[in-house]
Amino acid sequence: MKILIIQLRQLGDVLLSTPLAQNIKLFHPDWSVYFLTSVQAQDIVSENPFIDKVLSLKKGLKHELEMIYKVRKERFDAILDVQRTGRSKRITLLSKAKLKAAFYKRGNNFPYNKLIKQETKGYTAFERLDLLKALGIHKPKKILPTLYFDKSTKERVKKYLESHGIKSYFVVSPTARKQWKMWHPEEFGKLSEELSKKLNLTAVITYGGSGEKKVALETAKYIENHHIIEKPFPIKEFAALIKLSKFSLGNDSFPSHVAVSQGIKTVVICGPTGGWFPDRNNILLIYKGLDCQPCNNPEKCSYNLACYRELSYKEVLPKILKFIREER
To answer: Is 228 helix (H, G, I), strand (E, B) or coil?
Structure first.
């Protein structure tokens, strides 16, 4: 069987969909698994040993039409459309695949001939595994996502760290794609300063693009022993940077998902959202603990995101120190 998984965006969602491929290969090693994503996200799934081929889609109608032609030519037996975007629906509908599967949602379901009810609740990567029922896989393994990179990538990052005199460090990722997923940079900075001093570690500050640099610089103002990655690393180098660190500190955003994928200790400052991280002993989710948290409806928050505003670095510092110092 030849199967195409479609997850075009966002970066974190692409990574969280990779356990689908691994489960397919575990169920039937001879089945061929392709993965269609955006050009920006292709490095998240490249080198994945459970994906036979990665297809990448650029923006624009011309490229979408080219992809439709390519998908039709590949003659897939089955398509799993994980996200159901406008583009993925059109590609699925016109694919010529015998099985066109997606999760059931109210409204536009006509591109699909197999609709799956999502029954698993909790960590979103595990929720997505319900889609495998379309292929007859009813007991998938709850495998964590993994972002793969080769030895040369790891060596490049090691050389970068050595050239800047960085030995022992933790990664601080204070930015997020959406404002309502970001704790205040001053709190990140003050927390990182305390962690740096008490654990004798350099705080390596990362950000995702030029629009996020301001937040990184604001965070750095409060940390004596810090290093800012001036030019954002490519995705695989970023994964290697996190893998080589003592632990990761970030928001409910892509860097924290990468940290989970590398199996290191991960601290996530959580605000109004929930369900994006698994229950594991090397992952610490920090919540203010308000009754309304997580609401998963931040754009209609009646409390001006009090879950972030009222969360002080002083109250989370002891929890994080205990978590980092414990053997796990």
So the answer is: strand
Identify the DSSP state of 224: S
CA-to-CA distance for 178 and 187, rounded, in angstroms? 18
Query: What is the layout of strands, in order, in the sheet containing 114-116?
Result: 53-57, 32-38, 2-6, 78-81, 99-103, 114-116
Rounded Cα–Cα distance for residues 72 and 84 (Å): 18
30 C-beta neighbours (distance < 10 Å), count: 6
Gap between the Cα atoms of 291 and 286, Å rounded:
14
CA–CA–CA angle 177, 183, 187 (5° rounding): 140
Nearest to 280 by CA among 296, 297, 257, 251: 257
Count of C-beta atoms within a 10 Å radius of residue 22: 20
Residue 299 has what pLDDT? 83
d(CA 177, CA 189): 19
3-state secondary structure of 268: strand
Over residues 229-244, the pLDDT tens digits come to 988 899 999 999 999 9
Which pLDDT tens digit goes with each residue over 171-210? 999 998 888 888 999 999 999 999 999 999 999 999 987 7
| Cis peptide upstream of residue 293 (ω within 30 degrees of 0) | no
Q: pLDDT (tens digit, 9 = 90+) per residue, 267-307?
A: 999 999 888 999 999 999 999 988 888 888 888 888 888 88
Q: Is the peptide bond before 294 cis (omega within 30 degrees of 0)?
A: yes
Distance CA(233)–CA(57), nearest Å, equals: 22
* Domains within the chain, CATH numbers bracketed: 2-135 (3.40.50.2000), 151-325 (3.40.50.2000)
